[in-house]
Amino acid sequence: MKVTKACKVCSAITEEDKCPLCGGETSKDWQGYVVIIDHTKSEIAKRMNIDKNGKFALKVR
User: Fold this and answer.
1) ∠ CA(18), CA(19), CA(25), 5° rounding?
2) Which of 12, 15, 44, 56 could be bridged to 2 by S-S, CB 3.0 to 4.6 A?
3) Above 90 in pLDDT, residue 2?
4) In angstroms, rounded to a whole number, what is the distance separating the alpha carbons of residues 57 and 14?
5) Structural domain of residue 39, as residue ranges?
6) HEC profile of 7-57
7) CATH number for the domain that contains residue 55
8) Per-residue b/e over 9-35, b at no fewer than 16 CB within 10 Å?
């Protein structure tokens, strides 16, 4: 069973050891998540500096 991890750089949620979006290191220690459907219209995406659609962690350690 794969463990869900979050990127320490861009907060993208993945099961990989390296982030598929930015290539950053991932961590098992994260909390909460948000799903961005349309990053161009999302106020949350703007505040979190997210420029792609997908699932992102709110807090990554």
Assistant:
1) 55
2) 15
3) no
4) 10
5) 5-60
6) ECCCCEEECCCECCCCCCEEECCEEEEEEECCCCCCHHHHHCCCCCCEEEE
7) 2.20.28.90
8) ebbbbbeeeebebeebebeeebeeebe
pLDDT at 44: 94
Question: Structural domain tally of the chain?
Answer: 1
Torsion of CA 34, 40, 6, 32, to 10 degrees: -20
Q: Is the pLDDT of residue 5 over 90?
A: yes
**Residue 12 DSSP one-character state:** B
The partner residues of 27 in beta bridges, in order of sequence, read: 6
In angstroms, rounded to a whole number, what is the distance separating the alpha carbons of residues 39 and 36? 6
